Amino acid sequence: MHKTGNCWFLAAAASLTLYPRLLWRVVPPGQGFRDGYAGVFHFQLWQFGNWVDIVVDDRLPVREGKLMFVRSEQRNEFWASLLEKAYAKLHGSYEVMRGGHMNEAFVDFTGGVGEVLYLRQDTPGLFSALRHALAKESLVGATALSDRGEYRTEDGLVKGHAYSVTGTHKVSLGFTKVRLLRLRNPWGRVEWTGAWSDSCPRWDALPAEWRDALLVKKEDGEFWMELRDFLCHFDTVQICSLSPEVLGPHPAGGGWHIHTFQGRWVRGFNSGGSQPAAETFWTNPQFRLTLLEPDDEEDNEEGPWGGWGAAGANGPARGGRVPKCTVLLSLIQRNRRCLRAQGLTYLTVGFHVFQIPEELLSRWDTPHSRALLPGLLRADRSPFCARRDVSRRCRLRPGHYLVVPSAARAGDEADFTLRIFSERRHTAVEIDEAISADLHALTAPYVPLELGLEQLFKELAGEEEELGAPQLQALLSIALEPASVHPRTPADIGLRTCEQLLQCFVHGRSLALHDFQQLWSHLQRWQAIFDKFDRDASGTMNSHELRLALNAAGLDRGPGFL
User: Fold this and answer.
1) Which is nearest to 560 in space by CA: 357, 282, 332, 349?
2) Residue 421's CB: how many other CB atoms inside 10 A?
3) What is the pLDDT of residue 72?
4) Does the domain formed by 440-556 have CATH 1.20.58.1610?
5) SS3 for 237?
6) Which of 132, 161, 352, 544 is catalytic?
7) pTM for this one?
8) Are the CB atoms for 361 and 136 separated by under 8 Å?
9) How far is CA 524 from CA 222, 287, 470, in A?
10) What was the pLDDT predicted at 348?
11) Which of 303, 247, 299 minimizes the C-alpha distance to 110?
12) Is 7 annotated as catalytic?
């Protein structure tokens, strides 16, 4: 297959062909140009928790008689071109598909969870991780990064290019064990020419049956290379572990446990940035995770990529003495690729995980719970990067945790999906529903009326000795002006506001003097709270300042309020 600038999609599609049942999920079988052909094809792609059916016609863009984008070496094979058209239709155009990461397409093809491993010369356990991942039908790719686009090196690799990882094998040369990786260039040509390439004489030292089983000498884009050479030339490995939807409801070893949450960061509301020390950080969406059962000892012995067989976060506890739970957290930015036409790209996003001590749980759903948040200890965190999918495999002790996904910059806006996976039991809830009030804090202390204010009340009340909404409007406009930091005119105290005050304090009736004394005490307290939290003295409040003011007044709706 060929396509310039779209190798991330090509490599993902090439990996998909390794597993027919995964391919048939995306490209339903029985579609062709015969037997009732109607000129349309349909494909299924996973999008943020749901499988979406995409229907396209058979018209493909060409230039000078050749397909402009993805095309197969076989002139009568069109499934890849049509799949690309369906993918482009889903995201708005072919143009927005230029540039990307394999994991994005991996996840859309499987509904799985994509993880990125940044390679070093001494990356431990990599070979075992790749072998384990491929055995579990994970999709695996590798990228050789470049600062100047795609270009071919002297040894046949293409920098700035994405490759599929299709196999692993250990061979013995005397007393030496050689770890080999099989890679595929999605172009279907241009291969590695270094050690263990198709023409390398090292193959002659192997037994004939091994050589015949492993070596295919043709220009098909697929080749073997030794692990140490791989680490020298490639920068990242991307692994997409299959989700429970693909593996089925009851894989070996028990059922799956998964929670999916849909959310959004909104400027001035709950986009608080990524720095826990910042006041606004705790306005971010928050999810409480409870891990109930530790992994079995044999799970711990699988190495740092246990469970799904992909890149681990913390690795097992030393000696396996401390019981821990493996949980995979996946954060996805929704619907951002289609915004490329407007000049927007993926935000830099990630998440923090904080531990909630047992002794704080009893106070968690009280009006004072917000004050507890800055004191929580961080248990883990993901990298913050400008990718659609950011995932991390965490190894945590059984207990209670707070997961806080965020954009790196306060005020950045995006839709997101947060998924939580484990093979052991867990519970997860979004912290956004608890509504509470501190009745003591809501009760304002009695403040006696000044003589002049009481006399003004009596003048406006007249013989009825009670105020209606128009008289209350006049009284407040006069009474509040000299005491306020921000002078108001009578028009600032609206008649509708006064009607609502009467509804709150006297259920819509007229206001007697003792009722006004109670109202005035509350207004004085609210004015003091407003002035305290209007820190820039602007006479207005943003949502963060308003949240703090409402909490000080005794109202709370958990971290998600406002």
Assistant:
1) 282
2) 24
3) 64
4) no
5) strand
6) 161
7) 0.74
8) no
9) 77, 37, 20
10) 96
11) 247
12) yes
Is 368 catalytic? The answer is no
What six digits make up the tokens of 146? Answer: 């470049």
Find the catalytic residue in 103, 185, 270, 300. 185
> Catalytic residue at 486?
no
Tell me what the mean pLDDT of segment 88-93 comes to. Answer: 89
* Beta strands in 108-210, from DSSP E residues, in sequence order: 113-118, 139-144, 151-152, 158-159, 161-173, 176-184
Task: Compare 75 and 515 and report the one with higher pLDDT.
Answer: 515
Q: What is the DSSP string of 409-465?
A: STT--EEEEEEEEESS-EEEEES----EE-HHHHSPPP-PPPHHHHHHHHHHHGGGT
Domain boundaries, the chain: 7-238, 250-434, 440-556
Amino acid letter, 527: Q
Would you say how long the chain is, in residues? 562
Angle at 3 between CA 8 and CA 231, to 5 degrees: 40
Contacts of 289 (CB under 8 A, 6+ apart): 327, 353, 400, 401, 402, 403, 420, 426, 427, 428
Span 7-238: which CATH code?
Answer: 3.90.70.10
- Greatest extent of the chain over all pairs of C-alpha atoms, in Å: 114
Q: What are the pLDDT digits (tens) for 416-431? A: 999 998 878 889 999 8
Q: Does domain 250-434 have CATH number 2.60.40.2310?
A: no
What SS3 class is residue 78? coil
* H/E run at residue 477: helix 469-483
| Chain position carrying tokens 């030794």 | 226
Residue type, 21: R
Alpha-carbon span 470 to 251, nearest angstrom: 71
Q: Pick the catalytic residue from 2, 7, 426, 522.
A: 7
Residue type for position 284: N
Q: Which two tokens stand for residue 296?
A: 């079995």
HSE at residue 383, side-chain half, CA atoms within 13 A, is 14
Question: Distance between CA 324 and CA 336 in Å, rounded?
Answer: 35
Mean pLDDT confidence for 448-455: 81
